[in-house]
Amino acid sequence: MIPLIENAFQFPSRIAVLDQGQHYSYQHLLDRSAVIARSLLATQRDLNQERVAFIIPPSFDYLAVQWGIWRAGGIAVPLCTSYPLPSLEYVIDDTKASFLIVAPEFEDLLSPLRVREDLTYLSSKDFDNQPSSHLPDIDPSRGAMILYTSGTTSLPKGVLSSHQTITAQIKSLVQAWKWSENDHILSILPLHHVHGIINVNSCALWSGAKVQFLPQFDAAKVFDIFNEGKVNVFMAVPTIYFKLIAFYETLSGSEQEEIQKALKKFRFMVSGSAALPVSVMEKWKGISGHTLLERYGMTEIGMAISNPYDGERRPGHIGQALPGVSVRVCDEEGKEVPPHKSGEIQVKGDTVFSEYWGKPEATAKAFTKDGWFKTGDIAIVEDGYFRILGRDSVDIIKSGGYKISALEIEEKIRAHEAIKDCGVVGIQDEEWGEKVVAALVTDQNIDISELKNWLRTQLPSYKIPKEFVFLEELPRNALGKVTKNELKKLF
Question: At 483, which CATH number?
Answer without folding.
Answer: 3.30.300.30
